[in-house]
Amino acid sequence: MQQSPIIILGIESSCDDTAAAVISDGKILANVIANQDVHKAFGGVVPELASRAHQQNIVPVVDAALKKAGVDKKQISAVAFTNGPGLMGSLLVGSSFAKTFALALAIPIIEVNHMQGHILAHFITENDGTSNKPTFPFICLTVSGGHTQLVKVFDYFTMEVIGETIDDAAGEAFDKVAKMLQLPYPGGPLVDKYAKLGNATRFNFPHPKVEGLNFSFSGLKTSVLYFLQKEQQINPNFIEENLNDICASVQKTIVDILLINVKKALIKENINQIAIAGGVSANSELRTRLLELENENYKVFIPKFEYCTDNAAMIAITGYYKFLQGEYASQQITPNARMKI
Question: Mind giving me the DSSP string for 96-123?
Answer without folding.
Answer: HHHHHHHHHHT--EEEEEHHHHHHHGGG
